[in-house]
């Protein structure tokens, strides 16, 4: 199932869910105070964009997300490549990396707030801790999964050093790295929003926290809708970039009709 037919099915499932939700809220089967109504949520989102109220918050969250995504991915890819090519160092650092990865990121949010204040830095730091490990483990595994035959043939042809990294290791790990990018987008947004939710003066997390503080369920759901659409757009952009950069990879055969 592909193309237009797939999109129609996806849209139909969403429309059916929203209609059922609207009907249940209007008939009293769901309490609108706790669940709101899709029509009211849509009206709130449209009002935010029409009045321009949402744009400053969207800008702050976008900036925090991009910084966390960029630095977290860069550090994760660099360290992943380095440790994959240096097994001795990887063996020494392995327990420390696993221990750091086991720390719940939510626990770090108040610490980063104490260290860096309520500004952008604390949200970026939290986002980096979420993005870094996703990029690191995917890059590390991708480099380790390089075909020994391809690697051996490249060395026979005299490929060494940086050229071996550029033409063998990175292309082989590219699909792993892009897979981590698509996952990291959501984590970068989570880091920014959780940090804003715990303490900030702007951002989508701040907007949701303000709505929650006055029991404005419609505002909470509206903020969540904006976040979901925001992440879907970013994921689509990364997918487009992936298709352009990995055009050399053979497409998977088979699958549903």
TrEMBL record:
GO biological process: transmembrane transport
Positions of the ABC transmembrane type-1 domain: 58-238
Gene3D superfamilies found in the cross-reference section: MetI-like
Coiled coil: none
Membrane topology: Multi-pass membrane protein
Domain of life: Bacteria
Alphabetically ordered keywords of this record: Cell membrane, Membrane, Transmembrane, Transmembrane helix, Transport
Gene Ontology cellular-component annotations: plasma membrane
Keyword field contains Cytoplasm: no
Location relative to the cell: Cell membrane
Positions of transmembrane segments: 65-93, 114-137, 157-178, 185-208, 220-241
PROSITE patterns assigned to the protein according to its UniProt record, in alphabetical order: ABC_TM1
Similarity field: Belongs to the binding-protein-dependent transport system permease family.
Protein known as: ABC transporter permease
Species of provenance: Thermus scotoductus
Lineage, uppermost ranks: Bacteria, Thermotogati, Deinococcota, Deinococci, Thermales
